[in-house]
Write a structure and sequence with these properties.
The chain is α+β, with helices and mostly antiparallel strands. The protein contains six helices and seven strands. It binds coenzyme A (COA).
Length: about 170
C-alpha cells in the first residue's frame, strides 16, 4: 500500500534551520567519530565547522547549500554541497545511526547525480577520513573511486587525514 511505503526525500534546508542541522551534526559526529579520530578532534571540529554559526557562515559566504535527508517526513540526516566550476563538492553526508542501511544514501547520491546532469557538472567529489573504513566501502558501492590522499590543517595542531573520492557523472 502506498501510504505504508518508506519515503526518502532530499529537502533544501533554510538559513534559519542551522540550529537543527547543527544539533544533528553534534549527535551523529559524537556517536560515529570518537573511535576513528578521537574525542578531542571531534569536539574541536564540531565547534569549528558544524556549529549553527559556522553553518550559517558557510551558507552565506561560502556557497555551501545544506539539505535534510528525510524518511517518511522525519529529518534523519543531512548533506551539504557546493558547485565548484564544473564539479560538485559533496562536503557533508551524515545519517543518524538508526536510519543507516535503508538506502537513504543511495537516494541522496541519485539526487545529486541528477542535480549534476541538469547543470552539466562532470563529477562529484568528497573527502572521507582514511580510517572511516565502513563508509569507504559504502562509497565504493555508490560508485565513488579513491583518487588520492589529502591532509588538511584545521588549526591548533588538528588535521584531517582523508582520501579524496570521486564519481564521474555519465
Ligand atoms: C555514509 C552514510 C551516509 C551511508 O548511508 P546509508 O544509508 O547507510 O547507505 P545506504 O543504505 O544507502 O547504502 C549505500 C550502499 O552501500 C551498501 N552498504 C551499506 N552498508 C554497507 C557496508 N557496511 N559494507 C558494504 N556496503 C554497504 C548498501 O548495500 C548500498 O548499496 P546498494 O544500493 O547497491 O545496495 C552513513 O553510513 C553514515 O551516516 N555514516 C556515518 C557518518 C559518516 O561517516 N559519514 C560520511 C562522512 S565522509
Amino acid at each position: 500500500m502506498d501510504e505504508h511505503k518508506n519515503q526518502i526525500a532530499v529537502v533544501q534546508a533554510r538559513l534559519d534551520e542551522t540550529p537543527l542541522l547543527s544539533a544533528m551534526a553534534y549527535e551523529i559526529w559524537r556517536e560515529h567519530f570518537p573511535p576513528i579520530v578521537g574525542q578531542a578532534t571531534v569536539d574541536y571540529l564540531l565547534d569549528k565547522i558544524q556549529s549553527s554559526e559556522a553553518m550559517a557562515h558557510q551558507i552565506r559566504e561560502e556557497n555551501i547549500v545544506y539539505y535534510f535527508l528525510t524518511f517518511n517526513g522525519e529529518k534523519v540526516g543531512y548533506m551539504a554541497v557546493r558547485v565548484e566550476g564544473d564539479v560538485l563538492f559533496l562536503s557533508k553526508f551524515y545519517l543518524k545511526k538508526e536510519f543507516r542501511g535503508k538506502g537513504i544514501a543511495r537516494t541522496g547520491m541519485n539526487y545529486f547525480e541528477d542535480f549534476c546532469r541538469q547543470r552539466q557538472l562532470k563529477k562529484i567529489y568528497l573527502h572521507v577520513n582514511r580510517k572511516n573504513l565502513g563508509v569507504i566501502k559504502i562509497y565504493e558501492k555508490l560508485g565513488l573511486k579513491n583518487v588520492g590522499a589529502e591532509v588538511t590543517e584545521m588549526g591548533h595542531g588538528f588535521v584531517m587525514d582523508d582520501y579524496v573520492m570521486e564519481k564521474v557523472i555519465s
